[in-house]
Amino acid sequence: MHEQSFAGNYFFRGLKMLWHPKLCIFVIMPILINIVLFILVLIVSIHYFDALVHWLLHFLPHWLAWLSWLLWLLFVITGIVVFAYLFTLVSNIIGAPFNGLLAEKVQALVTGKLPSDNTTWQDTIKDIPREIGRAAKALFYYLPRALICLILLFIPFVQTVVPILWFIFNAWMMSVQYLDYPMDNNKISFHDMLKKLSQRRLSNLSFGCCVLIGTMIPVINLIVMPAAVIGATLFWLDQYQEA
């Protein structure tokens, strides 16, 4: 396929394969992790933000008490943005072992053979620290670049294009994160993976855009992670795997 081809369809193919009998167990576990994380983060965020609002109101005249609803509105908007970008990153680190196994099973389902020599649960458990470390590399790749976008937000004139840059960057990160699983299974280093992705930027951005938009839709965002892992594996097999 050419670089200009639309790769977002791989995400939708991943959604269709979510409940395949041979993949179900690897799909359900990440979803449960996402639900638990979502509930915990939501409870803690609401608790502390409510305390912060009450504290701030003590310093305001009584007639400005109506500002509390405005603060809650800002909280909801900010929460949607933060959850869309950071929630998926953190849940990926925790769900990395399951995601790696899911990518492995998808490749075996499509090609008829496993991408690695790990044939037992003992082998898989031994790989967990490496897989979590690999997911952490994606996070460390993300943070400094996100900081640059934040700094650009305070530069006059440049700040007008920051929302567009932010969306493009996070779409790229979605592609980086999820293609990392099949590439890691096939012994491709994180550095080499980035070089490969840079050769098909538009294809990767189209895939990442679909995943990113999925993370912004309530409820749907709970199944985005396993669907993206499946889609990324299919993407890898079609466009990156060497003949």
Summarize the model shown.
With 243 residues, the protein is mostly helical.
Cα distance spanning the termini: 14 Å
In total, how many beta strands?
0
Q: Any low-confidence stretches, pLDDT <50, length ≥5? A: none
- Which structural class fits the helix and strand makeup? mainly alpha
What Rg is obtained from the alpha carbons, in whole angstroms? 20 Å
Main sheet: strands, sense, barrel = none
The tally of helices reads 8
Q: What percentage of the residues does DSSP assign to strands (E)?
A: under 5%
Helix percentage:
over 70%
Mean pLDDT equals 79
Taken in chain order, the helices and strands follow as HHHHHHHH
Structure overview:
The protein has one domain (9-238). Helix 2 crosses helix 8 and helix 4 packs antiparallel against helix 5. The chain has eight helices and no strands. It is mainly alpha-helical and 243 residues long. The protein has helices at residues 9-16, 24-57, 67-111, 121-152, 162-185, 190-198, 201-215, 221-239.
List the helices and strands and how they pair.
Layout: H1 9-16, H2 24-57, H3 67-111, H4 121-152, H5 162-185, H6 190-198, H7 201-215, H8 221-239
Q: Any key phrases for this structure?
A:
single chain, 243 residues, mainly alpha, 8 helices
